[in-house]
Design a protein that fits this description.
The complex is a heterodimer of chains A (469) and B (230).
Chain A: H1 2-12, H2 16-56, E1 59-62, E2 76-77, H3 80-88, E3 92-106, E4 111-119, H4 121-124, E5 137-138, H5 141-147, H6 153-161, E6 166-167, H7 170-176, H8 184-194, E7 208-211, H9 212-218, E8 225-231, E9 237-248, H10 253-256, E10 259-263, H11 264-271, E11 276-277, E12 279-284, H12 290-300, E13 307-310, H13 311-314, H14 316-364, H15 369-404, E14 407-408, H16 411-419, E15 425-426, H17 433-449, H18 451-459, H19 462-467
Chain B: E1 2-15, E2 18-31, E3 35-39, H1 46-53, E4 61-66, E5 69-70, H2 76-86, E6 87-90, H3 102-112, H4 117-130, H5 146-158, E7 164-168, H6 176-193, E8 196-201, H7 204-209, E9 212-217, E10 220-226
Parallel strand pairs in B: 3-8, 3-9, 6-7, 7-8
Antiparallel strand pairs in B: 1-2, 1-4, 4-5, 9-10
The chains are: A alpha+beta (469), B alpha/beta (230).
The structure holds adenosine-5'-triphosphate and magnesium ion.
Chain lengths: 469, 230
């Protein structure tokens, strides 16, 4: 066996250049496949995180009719026992009751269709956490104008770059403007001028929180009021005037364009409901066990007038977007691997035809064909393992970097993506199945490619091989 | 004692409906320790005959007995094993495993034959020294001349003292001086170790060295003489 390994290893370096080229092609395929999949999977996870985990919930309890007809008439009776029952379920992280409805928001001059979301302010902190997303500083035309006389032009230039951007904390603003500690006086001036007095909703608040982009569209800020007009429960009409308590910047651009938060009590009054909700949104600990948890919840609520839906049903567009993107990525990899396969196969063909005479002699002097097969297969394994491990090793720093420092688009592409309702941030995925599977695929490919030399050797006729036939 | 007994050996090829009888009812016995040359014009059937005796090819009819064992009855797996343990081969060229050194080429086959480490080590240096390559044991084939490579092949064939050695034109790729040296070496080892040699050749000088000459023509043995010139 030691001899076999020795021969296989030395054979590998007989044609040094060919070996290096073949191993390099495996290296690049593995490296590219891993980096690409990490980028894709990371992006999907991010997409799911910003729209599912931080708003929709992985699972929702709804009135069975609500899905097809999301009207306020399709609500269900909400009780605290229900909430307890859900929270008790294995893998459930948090569950929050909500009422969602559409309404027209107006400031008199401007109006826009909005999504009203009634929440329990305390509970919602564990779900979409609007409090953390409150805008405390916003760079606006007005703020820049005021600052123009007071501070250095280079800071003004920076502010202009960040015009119309909102920040949830002073640190974020300072980082964005590249402030050093010695600039603290200027920073204080800027903070004072850009400050937004956002507050969170109290449990029985009469006011609302509105999303950042919506606030810009409607040109309202904290302290202003908006008029909401909609349809209430069972055809009643709903209207009211609500003070804006705070501005929230939502990570999902789509939601950021249209969301209005109010308390459950407030929206109950607005819509003429009593202790009813449209959904209970649920987040889970382990997303891989979502279907299992869904089944458990379905059993729990079997005989009630509710149903359980997962995010893939609730947001089929996102699911489809991820799937079609993933399929095109995988298709690309398949093409890449097919090319690599033929590269490896070509190497094998040349290797075998070059060595036929040698094989013939070895068999003639009494070498078992099985050993010959072992030499060739081992040689290919060495070759592929070099490429696979080198490719994996090279991808590690790229993944780590992309995980900790996600790709952030800037400029027009960024605006375009936001326009399309997507977040222009692309983090890489942490190491997972996708990382190992590429090596396994190449490994299997090598084994498949080895069928040819194995057959050739097993069928080999020593005399013909020696004669060079 | 007869090492090889060939009886009524026939090998016929049918090529495009044309039948070629490459070996035609050959009878031949080789005794232990003989140094025999098979000669004859090109196409007379030398290679075909040697291949069958060496268990590389199957006859159309007839029997080949090696030490009274009929090898025509063996299947191809048994034949590989039989060759490994009973026959040494020297081919015209490409004899050696290119990635192994001279020493490793010899020890590799001895280890396959199941010899123990100590025996292998001793025998390898003994035989390589005997073929005059004591100082080139760690050279790879591509670092050796054609004649030196053939000498390694002789050493490998003889290493574990097979029943007989088959050499099909072992000197065809060598110049006359190297040919002479190789033959002297083979003859010397044949005498010293009492190993049976059966080789084919075109070369008159090689013929002169042989102690027995079997002449083939059109697949038939037409002459079988002790070499009187010697
Ligand atoms: N595989 C084969 N198929 C058909 N005919 C063959 C085959 N091998 C050998 N022959 C024929 O058998 C005859 C004997 O060939 P062989 O190679 O044994 O001759 P040889 O004496 O070794 O010749 P040379 O001195 O040229 O090596 C030739 O006529 C050859 O054409
Ligand atoms: Mg011949």
């Amino acid at each position: 066996m030691k001899d076999i390994i020795k021969i296989a290893w030395r054979n590998l370096w007989r044609n040094r250049r060919r070996t290096i080229i073949t191993a390099s092609s495996i290296f690049f395929a593995i490296f590219f496949a891993i980096v690409m999949r990490s980028f894709q999977i990371g992006t999907y996870k991010h997409m799911v995180k910003i729209s599912i985990e931080s708003y929709l919930g992985y699972l929702q309890i709804q009135n069975p009719d609500y899905f097809d007809d999301p009207s306020i008439d399709n609500v269900f009776e909400f009780t605290l026992e229900m909430l307890e029952e859900i929270t008790k379920t294995v893998n459930v992280k948090v569950a929050v009751p909500r009422i969602e409805s559409f309404a027209l928001a107006s400031t008199g001059m401007l109006s826009k269709g909005v999504m009203l979301t009634g929440i329990s302010p305390e509970k919602e902190k564990e779900m979409s956490n609007p409090e953390q997303k409150l805008v405390h500083y916003a760079v606006t035309d007005k703020a820049i104008e005021h600052l123009q006389q007071k501070i250095k032009p280079d800071v003004i230039e920076l502010l202009k770059i960040h015009n119309n951007t909102s920040f949830s904390s002073a640190e974020k603003l300072a980082t964005a403007l590249d402030f050093q500690t010695e600039d603290s006086l200027i920073l204080q001036t800027v903070l004072a001028q850009t400050h937004v007095a956002s507050g969170y909703l109290s449990e029985n608040d009469e006011g609302v929180l509105i999303s950042d982009r919506l606030s810009k569209y409607l040109k309202v800020s904290v302290g202003d009021s908006i008029i909401l007009i909609g349809q209430g429960y069972q055809g009643s009409s709903a209207a009211g005037i609500y003070p804006v308590r705070g501005i929230v910047k939502l990570p999902s651009p789509e939601l950021d364009n249209k969301l209005v938060y109010m308390t459950l009590g407030n929206i109950n009054t607005f819509l003429g409901l009593s202790e009813q909700v449209t959904s209970i949104a649920i987040n889970i600990e382990n997303t891989d066990e979502m279907y299992k948890t869904e089944t458990v919840l379905k059993q729990t609520f079997e005989n009630t007038k509710t149903c359980v839906k997962n995010w893939e049903e609730l947001s089929p567009a996102l699911k489809q977007q991820i799937e079609s993107d993933s399929v095109s990525g995988i298709l690309f990899l398949v093409i890449l691997y097919v090319i690599i396969f033929f590269g490896i196969f070509g190497t094998l063909l040349m290797m075998i035809s070059e060595r036929m005479r040698e094989f013939g002699i070895m068999v003639a002097i009494g070498m078992k064909k099985f050993k010959l097969v072992l030499i060739v297969v081992m040689e290919m394994l060495f070759l592929s393992l070099i490429g696979i491990f080198a490719g994996m090793a090279a991808s590690v720093p790229v993944i780590l970097y992309g995980y900790y420092f996600p790709v952030k688009l800037t400029g027009e592409i960024k605006d375009m993506m936001i326009e399309l309702g997507m977040d222009p941030v692309f983090p890489f995925a942490w190491f997972g199945d996708y990382f190992y599977i590429q090596g396994v695929i190449v490994f299997i490919m090598i084994l498949v490619a080895c069928i040819y030399p194995v057959r050739t050797i097993l069928k080999l006729n020593a005399i013909e091989a020696i004669r060079g036939k | 004692m007869n090492v090889i007994e060939v009886e009524n050996l026939v090998k016929a090829y049918t090529d495009l409906a044309l039948e070629v009888v490459a070996v035609d009812h050959v009878n031949l016995t080789v005794k232990k320790g003989e140094f025999t040359a098979i000669v004859g014009p090109s196409g007379s059937g030398k290679t075909t005959l040697l291949n069958m005796i060496g268990g590389l090819d199957k006859p159309t009819s007839g029997t080949i007995r090696v030490n009274n064992k009929d090898i025509t009855q063996l299947n191809s797996k048994e034949l590989i094993n039989f060759r490994l343990h009973n026959i040494g081969f020297i081919f015209q060229s490409y004899n050696l495993i290119p990635v192994l050194t001279a020493k490793e080429n010899v020890s590799f086959i001895m280890e396959m034959q199941g010899e123990n480490r100590k025996t292998v080590d001793e025998r390898v240096s003994e035989i390589l020294t005997a073929v005059g390559l004591g100082d080139r044991m760690n050279s790879r084939p591509n670092q050796l001349s054609g004649g030196q490579q053939q000498r390694v092949a002789v050493a490998r064939a003889m290493a574990s003292r097979p029943q007989f050695i088959i050499a099909d034109e072992p000197t065809a790729n060598l110049d006359s001086k190297t040919t002479e040296k190789l033959l002297d070496l083979m003859e010397e080892l044949n005498e010293k170790e009492n190993i049976t040699f059966l080789f084919s050749t075109h070369d008159q000088r090689v013929v002169n060295k042989a102690r027995r000459i079997v002449v083939l023509e059109d697949g038939k043995v037409v002459e079988d003489n002790e070499n009187i010139k010697q």
